[in-house]
Structures are given as C-alpha cells and as structure tokens.
Specification:
The longest helix has 33 residues. The protein folds into 3 domains: 198 residues, Growth Hormone, Chain: A; 52 residues; 213 residues, MFS general substrate transporter like domains (Growth Hormone, Chain: A). The chain is mainly alpha-helical and 498 residues long. It contains 21 helices and no strands. The chain starts with 22 loop residues before the first helix and ends in a 13-residue tail after the last helix. It is a multi-pass membrane protein.
C-alpha cells in the first residue's frame, strides 16, 4: 500500500497542444487517465493478498517473497523523477501509451511466470512502466483541464480514484485469488490496459514542454543504482548483518547516493534540484514520507500472511479484513483537512506517528490462536488514525513554499520517498522476521505457526519503533508557525497514490 504524490508538469513551460480538450472528449480523457491511476495504485496492493498462494505455487523463499513487493516499489520510486522528465520532454501522450502497453506486457509476463526470478523481474518491469505512466497521466490531466471548476472536479475524481486504489487492490486480489487463481492478480491488468490504450488513442492529445530540455542521465543512473544497491544490501541482512556482501552493498549504495548529490549540485538541469530537499521543513516532510512508507508497505505486507497462514482466512476474507485501516484514513481525511489550518501541521505530525506506532505495537501482540477482532482490528484502527494525522499535513508540507517551477519535481520526490522507504523497510523487516522465526524450535504444525507468528510480531514491533522515530523527526524538523508552514495559495494540487 502506498500513499504519496506524483509529479505535476513543469510550471512555466509552454506545453505543445495545451489548449485543452473540449466537450465529451475531455471527460473521456478523465475516465481514461483515472483508470491509468487506478492500475498504478492497485498493483501496489493486489499482489499482497496473492503472495501466500504464489509462494506455494512457485516455491518462493521468504526472501524472494518480499522481493515480489520490493521490486515494484523500488523501480517505481527510483525512476519516477526520470519518468516525469521523459513525459515532459518526449511527449506526454507518447509516454502514457508506452507506459500503458509496457505495463500490460510486464503483467502478462508476471502472470505466466514459472519461477521466482521471472515473477520478480516482471514486478520490477511493472514498476519501470508505472514510473512512465503515472506522471504522464497526471500531466495530461493538467493539460486537459487547464483551469476553472471543471479542473477542480477532474482533480477530485482523479484523487478519489487514487485514494481508493489500494482498497480496490486488496478486494480484487482477494476475489481473484480465491475464485480464480493468484496469476489473475497480474493478468487482470490486461483488461485495464486494453481500455487505457484504446481510450488513449480516442481521447488524449499530445503535449510536451517546449524549450531546451536535457536529461540528467548521470543523475538517473547513480540514484537508481544507489537505491538498488542499498535495498539489496539490506535484503541480505536476512542472512546476517555482519556479512561482507551485506556491508559491501550498503556502503556502495551510500557512495552512489553521495555521488548523485554531487552530480545534482553541478548539472544545469538536475533530475532533483537540491533546493527542493534542503529546506528543513520540506526535507523533514519527505523523510517522514520514507518512514511512513516503510511502515505501510514494509510492515503491513506481513498482515496478509498472518491473516491467511496463521488465522486461516480465505484470500477474500483476508482482503476485507485488511480494509479497516484504509477506511479509517478515508473517514478521517475530511475532518483533518478542515482541522489542519486551525491547529497547524506540527501537532498532527508529532502525534500521528505515535498513534500509528501504538497500533503497530498492538499488532505485535498477536498469537497463533488469537481472535481477529481482539488482536488485529483495534491495531488497524489505531494505525489508520495515526496515518491519517500524518498523511494530511505531510502532503501539504511536501509542496508548501516550493517554487512554481519545482512543484512537479517536489511532488515526485515526495512519492519517491514513500516508495523507497517502503522498499528499504520491507528488506529490513524481513531480516527481523527471519531472526525471530529462527528462535522458535519447529517440530510440528502448531510450532511452525508459532514461528511464523513470532516473525510477524517482530516486523510489527520494528515498524512501531520506526514510526515512533518519525515523531522525533517531526518534533525537530517541522518548525514554525502554522502560517509560516502553510502559507495561503502555495503548493498546488497534490494527488495521492493510494
């Protein structure tokens, strides 16, 4: 599950074909672009429910199982900034079409996968094409609805689809896994892709940013390789933190990210202008994006395993049982949005992570024979309440006081932080899971369930510690009056990814 923003087109550039689309064609474009957004978001969660079945079918190890989730989030997050640049420079409709077709092909590849390597590679390719599709879709929406009440309506529809995509993924994943086969959680994308491609030809117009445009390829290569090396190094911690390969890949990842910072400080058109993240408040908000991503993606993936493997829920029931957190977030969002200008973002961003940490701590108390309504549901409600208090102000601060020309890249950086945080979090939590499982002497079925439960409990506890650290980050980095932190009129629209 993911929450964040995707990049807006660069403000100040004169887009080719930016006069918009009139009449029914414009609303057809909205439907198609909202569908594209739904595909990107639901694929972050639809596979979670199918993982236990996929693990049995393909003989995945626990490490390979987490990479089915990590590969998508890592590729998506690492390449999102570059995807936004490609859409602006190469053409938004063209990028959309390539992203949509490529996403469909990767989904078919994953649905037909015969081993772990093929499935993980397919998920990574899905992430690559999602990084093209998502920013192109939002940019096309902005061009199609350049202003007025219709623009507000379009963004409301688009945002609602994005906000409900994760829940749709959980439910659809449960239905397909239970009544068809886990492979259909990937193959179902073909239906969305066919509609998106046909609709793209019928309703979308080409647009791109004019002027001298250069790709920051050196920056793209170093940040992608750096993040990949870092996540891979952490995933090896499952076999030991002191191993040479674990330390080597982590150190290599850090070195490449340092090189990325050096490159961005010197190139004329950087992939990520450093001024976007060096602001203390904005940098703190993006660090909190990464922390919340680690808990949401890294921590709650194991919830699906506990519900199905330990509690014995069917995939559909497990999907429904995972929804309370999302429902609480959606119910709290309107209230907290009205409350934000009254009390300011700082109190919500300090208290929110603590409530979420309490929810995760509650979940860490699970037992092999526990009752869902006693041991799981209260934790999910607390987690949803805490995340809602964090998400609402965090999205605003990620774009507050940013220069107009940096609005798109700031939005993309915030979402990238969420995805990368989830990738790193899942890798680290898997190491805690493996260590906890190894402490249980497995002699029969019940003891194996006890071992699994110990592992899941360890991941929830680790995620709780990370979320509590987020409150400390907010206390020291989110400083200033509410008027200073949220000046009127700044930021522009931010669209949530789920």
């Amino acid at each position: 599950m993911s929450t964040g923003t995707i990049p807006l087109p660069r403000t100040g550039a004169v887009p080719l074909g930016s006069r918009g689309i009139r009449g029914a064609r414009r609303w057809g474009a909205l439907i198609i672009l909202a569908l594209a957004q739904l595909v990107v978001v639901l694929d972050g969660t639809i596979v979670n429910i199918a993982l236990p079945q996929a693990q049995l079918a393909l003989g995945l190890t626990d490490g390979q199982r987490q990479w089915v989730v990590t590969a998508y989030a890592l590729a998506f997050g690492a390449l999102l900034l570059l995807g936004g640049r490609i859409a602006d420079y190469w053409g938004r409709k063209r990028t959309y079409m390539v992203g949509m077709i490529g996403f469909g092909a990767a989904s078919v590849f994953g649905g037909l996968a015969q081993n772990a390597t093929e499935l993980i590679a397919a998920r990574g390719l899905q992430g690559v094409f999602a990084a093209l599709l998502a920013p192109a879709a939002l940019a096309l929406l902005t061009v199609s609805f350049p202003g007025g009440k219709e623009r507000n309506t379009a963004f409301a529809v688009f945002g609602t689809v994005a906000g409900t995509g994760a829940a749709v993924g959980l439910l659809l994943g449960g239905v397909l896994t239970e009544f068809a086969d886990w492979r259909w959680c990937l193959l179902v994308n073909v239906v969305f892709v066919l509609a998106g491609v046909i609709g793209g030809f019928l309703f979308l117009r080409e647009s791109r940013a004019d002027g001298e445009n250069r790709y920051d390829l050196a920056g793209a290569l170093t940040v992608t390789a750096g993040l990949g090396s870092l996540v891979y190094g952490f995933s090896l911690a499952e076999y030991g933190w002191a191993r040479l390969d674990t330390i080597g890949f982590v150190v290599l990842g850090v070195a490449l990210l340092v090189a990325f910072v050096v490159i961005e400080s010197r190139v004329a058109q950087p992939l990520l202008p450093l001024r976007v993240i060096t602001d203390r408040v904005r940098g703190g908000a993006m660090l909190l994006q990464a922390i919340s991503g680690s808990a949401m993606i890294g921590g709650t993936v194991y919830l699906a395993f506990h519900l199905q493997i330990v509690l014995g829920f069917t995939p559909l029931v497990a999907g429904v049982a995972s929804l309370p957190m999302t429902i609480v977030i959606m119910l709290c969002a309107p209230v907290l949005t009205r409350l934000l200008p009254v009390i300011g973002p700082r109190p919500m961003m300090i208290v929110g992570p603590l409530i979420a940490a309490a929810g995760l701590l509650y979940l860490s108390r699970i037992t092999p024979g526990g009752d869902y309504f006693v041991e799981v549901l209260p934790g999910l409600v607390l987690l949803g309440l805490g995340m809602a208090n964090l998400f609402i102000p965090m999205q605003n601060l990620a774009l507050a006081r940013v220069a107009p020309q940096d609005a798109g890249v700031a939005s993309a950086a915030a979402n990238s932080a969420m995805q990368i945080g989830g990738s790193i979090g899942l890798s680290v939590f898997t190491a805690f899971y493996a260590a906890a499982v190894a402490t249980v002497d497995v002699t029969d079925g019940p003891s194996q369930l006890a071992a699994f439960t110990a592992g899941y409990s360890a991941t929830f506890l680790a995620a709780a510690v990370v979320m509590a650290a987020g409150s400390v980050v907010a206390f020291f980095m989110i400083r200033g009056t509410k008027e200073h932190l949220l000046p009127s009129g700044d930021g522009g629209p931010a669209v949530h990814l789920g």
